[in-house]
Amino acid sequence: MTNIEKLKQKHALALEAQRWEYRTRELQFLEAGQHQRALNQLMWQVPGMAIAITGGLWYGATTLETEAPRVWVFGFTAIVDFLTVVILWRIRSLIEVHIEHQRGFSPPESAEAKSKCSWRWACAWPKRTVITCWTIALLAAAAVSIAGAFHPSAVSKPKTQEPTRACCNVSIDLPTQRCEVPLAKPALPAQPARKRTCHR
């Protein structure tokens, strides 16, 4: 084997190794994108489920007559809202991990791009807009639930009284004696008319 053939084989092996490396990075990039899309979908589904549960429990609590079960229902609703906030921030942290993983496939940012975000919170606020809005909404719902648990009588559903209808008692006097109706006599057959004769 000559030196030229050895050099060709060396470059071919290096090219094949580089090709597999690019293919591996491509698969990692696509898989990270799929995980990020799934987590983003959960990011929008979890608050909707929490809002549906909260609204259903609120309506059920207002229909209860006694105050003790109403306090338990409002307390459970507040716990659900608080735990939903924790779950949302956990999902957001996982999304951030996948975002950072995908940034590793991109070229590093220039110094000018980094200088635009010198203030940390100014750069972090656009990235946290959705999670911040959901957190405010769920904490407000939890606050309403806590207020309902401490003042259950203020959130009771007012009872509507049905209008009473006046009934008119009408008495009908029926005759108690029998009324005997005479039967009609049977019709007699018509007699033939007699001829009258004149005697002189």
UniProtKB/TrEMBL annotation:
Protein name: DUF202 domain-containing protein
Residue intervals passing through the bilayer: 42-59, 71-89, 129-150
Entry keywords, A to Z: Membrane, Transmembrane, Transmembrane helix
Keyword field contains Membrane: yes
Superkingdom per UniProt: Bacteria
Record's keyword annotation contains Transmembrane: yes
